[in-house]
Here is the input.
Amino acid sequence: MNMPSRFSIATYWAKREPKFVIDLGEPSCFACHYFQEHWDEPNTMQERWNKARLERAHIVADSIGGSVDVENFVLLDRQCHREAPMTNSRELFLQWVHNRESWLSRCFRDWTLAFQRAGITEAALSKIDFRDYTNFQKRFSEHLRRCRFDKHPQLLGLPGDGDTVALILKDFLTVQAG
Here is the structure.
């Protein structure tokens, strides 16, 4: 039997659990709400959901008696899927999805700790004029190129990148101050 499409899973849950599908037009992980802007590029909602890099996760795994019916799936990003509980309890699994920390919250927490480890102070951060974001983005991108940093700037910010971001930002602040 075939698994349901991502769009059919999103549509099913959009009608039943608004916390899982915040906006049917913008695909995101049901648990942490991680998304990528390029997931919005296809024209139709169906294409967006079906092309999003979200994994179909069984609520009750098929290996322990779960079905391949749409109501037995949620859409999770890779990290959430890897960390999701494997259980025969639908209630426990859905509670886990409800209680999952958002990826943005994880990023801020990780970055705060990473900035502390790198010795970046609030005073140093306050010297950056984020109101002129376009200029900041241009200067920071130029700095990344000068450092020969090999990760695309739009991919920075995922949980786990805090220490990398902190060290690059510390160097950027030192160059800007110098």
